From TrEMBL:
Organism the protein comes from: Lachnellula subtilissima
Domain of life: Eukaryota
Record GO cellular component, one term: peroxisome
Listed GO biological process terms: glutathione metabolic process
UniProt GO molecular function: glutathione peroxidase activity; glutathione transferase activity
Transmembrane segments: none
Name used for this protein in its record: DSBA-like thioredoxin domain-containing protein
InterPro entries associated with the record: GST_Kappa/NadH (IPR051924)
Length: 92
């Protein structure tokens, strides 16, 4: 077997090209499935632009936020401390 599997097998200590290719193919398939599932879930939330945040706080309350200018609201929803100094001050 040549190609990527053989090269990775060589780098990992020799041989194993078939095993490496099996892992890569499995990861590729699972990765594509995960991406498709996450995309479907994101679309079900009704996003209308980027950046779109879905945040669940410690009480189990789930809320969505749109735009980087809403990071302070995300932090509030999650119950995070908001620093009053440094770079964070301008953002939050």
């Amino acid at each position: 077997m040549g190609g990527v599997g053989a090269r990775v097998g060589e780098c990992a200590g020799g041989g194993g090209g078939e095993e490496v290719m099996a892992v890569l193919e499995m990861a590729d398939k699972e990765g594509k499935e995960m991406l498709a599932n996450n995309t479907d879930a994101a679309l079900a939330d009704g996003p209308f632009g980027l950046l779109w945040f879905v945040a669940t706080n410690s009480k189990g309350e789930r809320e969505t936020f749109w735009g980087v200018d809403h990071l302070a609201q995300v932090a509030d929803h999650l119950g995070l401390d908001k620093p009053k100094t440094g770079e964070w001050k301008a953002l939050l």
